[in-house]
Specification:
By secondary structure, the protein is an alpha+beta fold. It is built from 10 helices and 20 strands. It has 2 domains: about 180 residues, FAD/NAD(P)-binding domain (3-Layer(bba) Sandwich), CATH 3.50.50.60; about 140 residues, D-Amino Acid Oxidase, subunit A, domain 2 (D-Amino Acid Oxidase, Chain A, domain 2, 2-Layer Sandwich), CATH 3.30.9.10. Helix 1 packs parallel to helix 6 and helix 2 packs across helix 9.
């Protein structure tokens, strides 16, 4: 069988692989391989779909901040709107107010409109909060809800329009370096060649790396459960995304229902994640204790994997020991909100161009993204 040949081969068809493939294809021939029959089947298709400038560490927040303009004013290949306003309210119960103060001090330099609220003020922002249950809160009024499906599909359309090729049901089984190129074989026996391979395989990134002879970076796939409940019709129109400061739950208005999560993080092997019924029951108790939702019935539930590196910072860069292997891994729970800026950054590093100035101006330390194999 003849080989398909490109300049860059991307492994992984989720939001990570699709976004960096799109950006690379502006100046190179790109192929993208996805092991599942459809692109974006795992984590991307199960995301809670938000843009939160105060979420994550300093590297994540810099990339998130630099992604806002793209989400609000996307290129023509994307069908707007990709994002809509959805304020974020962090809440802290009795004795946990200092955690709100600490978060505000950490993020206020970049998110200047974030402000601290006392309990009664928080109750006015979220009328479903039970009186007296919140000691202190922080409001991020500029947070957004993201149309994940259209964002992902826009990247896939854009990649194809730029001449890129996408192949599903193409699980990589072997690879070898031939001169200055990789020869990659999938489970169907098809052969592909490329000068650079981008490892954007999400929870499978460490497993894919071993096929190329690279050391792992310590990807930890953490399961997160999500469930949907009915929403009181008279309240949902103006309710913010509400997040417990200790990550015990969040509640997000979504149409005629609420999307909720116990914010669980359970380590599991890469695979098709299933929701944790025990964690969901715990979250229902916690939510009912502080909000007047009186949840008694779950309409449906699902789970996804959020893949983190040990320091919770994405890895974007060439492997230090394996020629032509580029890491694009560890987006964790931030992949949707930071993908525009991270994809532009990754594409620049692959091509040898300077990292975009607007991304650097948001405070990104490019060195923090370097491959940290163990």
């Amino acid at each position: 069988m003849d080989s398909l040949e490109w300049d860059v081969l991307v492994i992984g068809g989720g939001i990570a692989g699709a976004s960096i493939g799109y950006e690379i294809a502006a100046g190179a021939r790109v192929g993208l391989l996805e092991m599942e029959p459809t692109l974006g089947y795992h984590t991307t298709g199960r995301s809670a779909a938000t843009w939160l400038e105060t979420y994550g560490n300093s590297t994540v927040r810099a990339l998130t901040s630099a992604s806002r303009a793209f989400l609000v004013h996307p290129p023509d290949t994307f069908k707007p709107p990709l994002a809509a306003p959805l304020p974020l309210l962090y809440i802290a119960g009795e004795g946990r107010g200092e955690a709100i103060d600490a978060l505000h001090a950490e993020v206020s330099d970049r998110t200047s409109d974030a402000r601290i609220l006392d309990g009664p003020e928080a109750e006015r922002v979220n009328a479903l909060l039970r009186p007296g249950c919140v000691e202190r809160a922080m409001l991020e009024p500029g947070a957004l809800e993201v149309n994940v499906h259209e964002l992902h599909q826009g990247y896939c359309r854009g990649l194809r329009r730029r001449g890129g090729t996408t192949l599903a049901s193409a699980r990589v089984t072997s690879a070898r370096r031939l001169g200055d190129r990789w020869e990659v074989v999938d489970a169907n026996g098809r052969r592909f060649r490329a000068r650079v391979v981008v490892n954007a395989a999400g929870a499978w990134c460490d497993l894919v790396a071993t096929v190329f002879g690279a050391a792992p970076v310590g990807i930890a796939p953490l399961r997160r459960s999500v469930f949907v409940v009915a929403a009181p019709a008279y309240e949902r129109a103006h309710m913010p995304l509400t997040v417990d400061i200790d990550d015990r739950f969040y509640v997000k208005p979504e149409g005629v229902q609420f999307l909720c999560s116990p914010a669980d993080e359970t380590l599991q092997e890469p695979g098709d994640a299933r929701p944790d019924e025990v964690e969901i029951a715990r979250a229902i108790d916690d939510i009912n204790a502080v909000m007047r939702l009186d949840i008694r019935h779950v309409r449906r539930a699902w789970a996804g994997l959020r893949s983190f590196t040990p320091d919770r910072t994405p890895v974007v860069g060439f492997d230090p020991a394996v020629d032509g292997l580029f890491w694009y891994a560890g987006q964790g729970g931030y992949g949707i909100q930071l993908c525009p800026a991270m994809a532009r950054t990754g594409a620049a590093l692959i091509s040898g161009r300077p990292v975009p100035r607007d991304v650097l101006d948001r405070g990104l330390d490019v060195a923090a993204l370097g491959a940290r194999t163990r």
